[in-house]
Amino acid sequence: MLGRHHLLLSLFTVAFLFVPYFEKYSELTLFVLIGVAIGSLIPDADSPDAAIFHEKIHVGGNVGAVINNVVSPLFPAFGYITKYAIYKPSVYIFGATFLKKYNVVERHRGFLHSFFGIATSTVFTAVYLLILLKLVNLLNWRYFLIFMLSYSFGALMHLIEDSATVTGTQYNYPFSNFIVKGKLITRSDSARMPEYFTRYLGFVVVALLFVMKLGYLSYSNWFISLLSIIFLLLSWVIFMFLVAGARTERGELKSCPNVKSYF
Description:
This protein is mainly alpha-helical. The chain has helices at 3-18, 26-41, 61-71, 75-96, 115-135, 141-162, 192-213, 221-243; strands at 178-181, 247-250. It starts with a helix and ends in a 13-residue tail after the last strand. A two-stranded antiparallel sheet has the order 1-2. The protein is built from 8 helices and 2 strands, in the order ααααααβααβ. The protein has one domain (3-250). The chain is globular, with a radius of gyration of 18 Å. Helix content is 58%, strand content 3%. 38% of the residues are buried.
């Protein structure tokens, strides 16, 4: 799936849940969205020229302007630190020690596209970020934990989104060859379904904002959040299984060696 789709699908999914809290918890919401945005692109740090290495993302309109001015300047720092200070050392050390029998190597849709890889990336990113914030005396534990949880969620969303493609996701790499894959092709000329779903989620976020702003919903925020969760689950189930045709199988995951033209 293209980088902009990973970014927008993850952001719109989380934004829809936080619509009732935008005004009351604006700062908290901002940290959540920034964490999700960065995390949604982090798994592709195992690729040569992924979106996480660029300061600008190919997203138009007001949403694109906000992302490119507020969030995307942070992408290269997180991308290169993840690639050279987390991903490559982890693959080398794990592959040479207790994971030696699994033949762990550097490849796209490998280590970073798994639960184990996301957990490793999250832990070390938290350590590096904690050290930096302590050094500059800017550590706020509440925002720090919220950011890291959002980062993890964004990365997990990336794995789910890749499960809609023909390559799929090997969630339990390298311990299992269990793969979830769909029928979508990751090319800019074959990205209509992710594009439509992205626009759909963007529309429902704007629609909910509009309805709440005008006071048309008189329900409590927790009830609106509950309905939002149910609505999102149904939307994602329809997209993954009916539109993308996601299914499970066992076998060797065929990774793509370069995704330079894919974001």
